[in-house]
Amino acid sequence: MDDATLERFAELIVSFGANVQPDQIVSIACEPGKEPLVRAIAASAYRRGARFVDVSWFDPWVKRARIEYAREETLDYVPPWLGERVLALGEHRAARIALSGPAALGLLQDLDPVRAGRDRLPAVKESGQVVSDRTTNWTIAPCPTPAWAQLVYPRLARDAALARLERELLHVCRLDEDDPVAVWRRRADRLVSVAQRLTARRFDAIHYEGRGTDLTVGLLASGTWQAARFETVDGIAHMPNIPTEEVFTSPDPQRADGHVTSTKPLVLIDGSVVRGLRVRFEGGRAVSIDAEEGAETLRTVCASDDGAARLGEVALVDGEGRIGALETVFYDTLLDENAASHIAFGRGFEFVVSDERERARVNESALHIDFMIGSPEMTVTGITADGERVPVLVQGSWAF
């Protein structure tokens, strides 16, 4: 990526995604290998008047050393200052930017999957709290690297793979448009409109049906559907994901019944890959988790707390987005979840529930793991309280 394009990408992330305000502290979470974009983002933030840019690096190779050699009883230890830092960012009303894209995919593949599943860093539960409290304006954006490119396009030479990954990322982020912000605003308007119409229907449940999937998920009575734009408690609008193509809500964690089959690989935050995932739900809980690869790690993760095996999110993705049309498996949840409808284990979003008493029913967990179950053939149906079935998403098109 040339310097001009890098700067333009950084500007989109800072000014439109996170919407950094003058005098804000800006946190950047990243991994080794992403230095050029990190530096471009820092420069963009300072040009917008940031008070201070704080870069937090997480090294997956150090994590590997911990899983390989640390004492068993220490593997789930999380230094308290890591969570305190996130809460402090909320207290200071900071902006938060994270860069996605696997830096070391498969790095833990030859290690004990149960040990790997116990160490959840760099994820910390406090991140979910500041999202629910809406105390920070934040965004996640992809950062291309040679290692990631070789994973996505293994048949291409290193330079050719990186060039293609950069080209496709610029396309899905709308940076190949003369005015990407204007294009994103139009797309966001469309998604917000769909979310408002879904909220107005007040469905009691939704039913996902497709190849290998037949799942009914109950919804909360005062739950609202959200999309594209968030707003902090102080009124700062921001776009949490660049790119984003989804509408979502947090369901009733006690009501999920049926089975699902993933349609794309799931890459956990530590780089572990779960392929061919199959999950069966009863009474809201995942009672069976199987996969062609990575099942034991995911089972360990989903046993980490009481809410980890329940759903915190259900999301719908239409066929109008740019990611799914590429038919590329990016091995990155930010992108792959915006190519297909998905659900998520773990923590829900309290801010999507309007009734204060009902917010207490939103799923609680230290983790949030999205996995993709959608396909062009999937049908999503809304079910009303009196049992009426209303088509919502049919072959990638909104039907209601």
List keywords for this structure.
single chain, alpha+beta, Thermophilic metalloprotease-like, 8-stranded antiparallel β-sheet, 31% helix
Explain this structure.
The protein has 400 residues and is an alpha+beta fold. The protein folds into two domains: 3-142, 3-Layer(aba) Sandwich (Thermophilic metalloprotease-like); 195-398, no CATH class. It is 31% helix and 26% strand. It has helices at 3-17, 35-47, 60-69, 80-91, 113-118, 125-133, 146-152, 158-172, 180-201, 295-302, 323-326, 333-336, and strands at 25-30, 52-57, 95-100, 137-142, 205-210, 213-219, 226-227, 230-231, 237-238, 246-249, 251-261, 266-267, 273-274, 278-282, 285-290, 311-317, 342-346, 368-372, 379-383, 389-394, 397-398. The protein has an eight-stranded antiparallel sheet. Strands 7-10-16-17-18 form a five-stranded antiparallel sheet, with helices on one face. It is globular and about 55 Å long. The termini are far apart. The model has no long low-confidence stretch (mean pLDDT 93).
The percent range for strand residues is 25-35%
Q: Given the C-alpha coordinates, what overall shape results? A: globular
Q: How many distinct domains?
A: 2
Distance between the termini: 42 Å
Poorly predicted runs are none
* Helix fraction bin: 25-40%
* Strands ordered across the widest β-sheet: 15-14-11-6-5-19-20-21
Class derived from helix and strand content: alpha+beta
Main beta sheet strand tally, sense and closure = 8 strands, antiparallel
Radius of gyration: 20 Å
